[in-house]
């Protein structure tokens, strides 16, 4: 088997054994597909990882940058205790409409606030409003925006908050210091920002699976 075929087959096995079909999650992806959204949501196994990280951390307030059709948002919202909230930020009105319909169908509209517009503006507005600090931030929008999103996350997270940054490996592209690819440049700048920040303790895990070769950066942020 070619590696990518093998990785996808192992993801199938992991899902079969450890991620039993959750109510309505396949419908969420079907609605994204029917709405013509790109198939760039986190994989099922990765959605469950985000869900478990949020639950393990006891996150009550979650911030997501980059909603798409709300697949990762719903995994995160299902990790919340009673009264918890996800605030999710999306630029594209078409993506936001599909996501809102998915939240309503999943019975989670009350727990999810979707803010439409450029994430940098929404993040600045949250800060200006004096939003209650977040326990957990998942950044997964346009990659050139990563340094700005990481900066806001450091301001919006509580002391002891968790930051997860998606797509940090990019099939190994992240180590190309001469890259002119804006996604690589944005991701490298975000990683350098975090590495210089004394309040942050971080690592990254490389991932293979149904979505190919990529990775997550995980960070704990002190106040
Ligand atoms: N987290 C989603 C996938 C997000 S894909 C999931 O796993 O299910 C990235 C999303 O970021 C896209 O929907 C894209 O429209 C959005 N995006 C791109 N640029 C943005 C910006 N400047 N502000 C907010 N969202 C943006
Ligand atoms: C893309 C964006 C993502 O967040 C992702 O997980 C995969 C692909 C993209 O823009 O191609
Ligand atoms: Mg992503």
Automatic annotation (TrEMBL):
Pfam families: Methyltransf_3. InterPro entries: Cation-dep_OMT, SAM-dependent_MTases_sf, SAM_O-MeTrfase. Signal peptide: none annotated. One of its GO terms (molecular function) is O-methyltransferase activity. GO terms for biological process: methylation. Gene3D superfamilies: Vaccinia Virus protein VP39. Keywords: Methyltransferase, S-adenosyl-L-methionine, Transferase. Coiled coil: none annotated. This is O-methyltransferase. It comes from Eiseniibacteriota bacterium.
């Amino acid at each position: 088997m070619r590696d990518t075929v093998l990785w996808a087959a192992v993801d199938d096995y992991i899902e079969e054994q450890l991620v039993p079909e959750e109510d309505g999650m396949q419908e969420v992806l079907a609605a994204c597909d029917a709405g013509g959204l790109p198939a760039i949501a986190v994989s099922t196994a990765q959605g469950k990882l985000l869900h478990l990280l949020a639950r393990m951390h006891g996150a009550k307030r979650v911030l997501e940058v980059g909603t798409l059709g709300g697949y990762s948002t719903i995994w995160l919202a299902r990790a919340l205790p009673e009264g918890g909230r996800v605030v999710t930020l999306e630029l594209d009105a078409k993506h936001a409409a599909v996501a809102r319909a998915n939240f309503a169908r999943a019975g989670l509209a009350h727990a999810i606030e979707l803010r439409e517009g450029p994430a940098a503006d929404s993040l600045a507005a949250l800060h200006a409003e004096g939003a209650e600090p977040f326990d957990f931030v998942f950044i997964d929008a346009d990659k050139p925006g990563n340094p700005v999103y990481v900066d806001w996350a450091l301001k919006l997270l509580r002391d002891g908050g968790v930051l997860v940054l998606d797509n940090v490996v990019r099939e190994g592209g992240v180590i190309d210091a001469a890259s002119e690819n804006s996604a690589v440049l944005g991701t490298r700048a975000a990683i350098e920002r975090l590495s210089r920040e004394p309040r942050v303790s971080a690592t990254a895990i490389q991932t293979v699976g149904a979505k190919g070769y990529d990775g997550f950066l995980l960070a704990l942020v002190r106040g």
